Amino acid sequence: MNAAQILERLVSFPSVVGTPNGAIVDWIRAYLESHSVEVRVLPGPEGDRANLFATLGPRDRPGHILSGHMDVVPAEEAEWRADPFTLRAEGDALHGRGTSDMKGFLAAVLASVPALKAGRLDRPLHFAFSYDEEAGCRGVPHLLARLPELCAPPLGAIIGEPSGMRGVRAHKGKAAARIRIEGRAGHSSRPDQGINAIHLMAEVLARAVETAQALEKGPQDPTFEPPYASMQIGTIRGGQALNIVPDLCVADLEARAIPGLAPRALLEPVHAVIGSLAARGVDATWEPLSDYPALSLPADAPLARLVERLTGAPSLAAVSYGTEAGLYQEAGIASIICGPGDIDRAHKPNEFIRRDELHACQAFIEALGQGLSPA
């Protein structure tokens, strides 16, 4: 099967983030095992989702990891011109949910297997395919926890997020949380008999805005736009009608951190407000949603130079989106982003990848394998 044919199969699995992914995992496992590739399926604690780890070459020697995620964002937009889970060709463009983000990379990796096997790798290539990346990289920490039993310490990890096949050395980290405040309903003419959950949430909002403004004046990293860490309340829900005291308010908060700052620590001033409300008897809860660190790879790192040599293009200093790369780096594995497609096409109706982008990625992977093969 070529990369486009494999992509057609991968897109056909509606592996939407937060849902069971057994079907796509089973298909990838069967494909790899048909090529005599060693595969481990690693169920997550959710019970209905799993990571997949595969090795070509001797797993007891240091090699490289090719990392990607099998999940996609939902495809419910009315602007889709056809079924988003059926690959559709328009000229050189292949349309479907996840084509750029990031089943195109997975397809190129899998299509390279015959050539990699023929090369009889002297050092291994590992495939690390994770789940629920789109929910804040929830699957890959479980995979990383198992890594010592799966392979020798890796030389580096290449995360195949869409980057136009140019290496990317840095991105911000992110932490997010959901805040839930329960009050007591009542008629708005008798506010003394109710507890207004939205009014209580206002204390949280005020602290979030105050913290966001302070971050703008905090540590700076000119690699990024904007060059500072940031915070925002992204959604807020509460209330039933104007004349009813709202008994529930829920807000989602995120912080994005430049390298050197811990994303979760940026949320602490707001988290402290929840503790203060709870100490006053308010039913206020804090639910962490995601937490992954920033990525920062030096320009002269061996992995950066390797990717630049294989792609023939200088690496980019940074991108605005986040990936699993920061988690690999936190685990002590040098990491870089390099994958086919364009992030500007991701999470949009009629997402697509071009055939030449798939071919370029496959050539990159096969060239990487050649460098791991005996002379």
From TrEMBL:
- Report whether Metal-binding shows up as a keyword of the record: yes
What Pfam family is a match, any one?
Peptidase_M20
Required co-factor(s) are: Zn(2+)
Q: Which SUPFAM superfamilies match?
A: Bacterial exopeptidase dimerisation domain (SSF55031), Zn-dependent exopeptidases (SSF53187)
Q: Name one GO molecular function term.
A: acetylornithine deacetylase activity
- Listed CDD domains: M20_ArgE
Peptidase M20 dimerisation domain location: 170-280
One of the GO BP terms on file: L-arginine biosynthetic process
Q: Which InterPro entries does this UniProt record tie to the protein?
A: AcOrn-deacetyl, ArgE/DapE_CS, Bact_exopeptidase_dim_dom, Peptidase_M20, Peptidase_M20_dimer, Peptidase_M20A
UniProt key word Cytoplasm? yes
Q: State the UniProt keywords alphabetically.
A: Amino-acid biosynthesis, Arginine biosynthesis, Cobalt, Cytoplasm, Hydrolase, Metal-binding, Zinc
Q: Where is the signal peptide?
A: none
- Write out the similarity annotation: Belongs to the peptidase M20A family. ArgE subfamily.
Against NCBIfam families, the record matches this protein to:
AcOrn-deacetyl (TIGR01892), PRK07522.1 (NF005710)
The protein depicted here goes by the name Acetylornithine deacetylase
Q: Which organism is it from?
A: Ancylobacter rudongensis
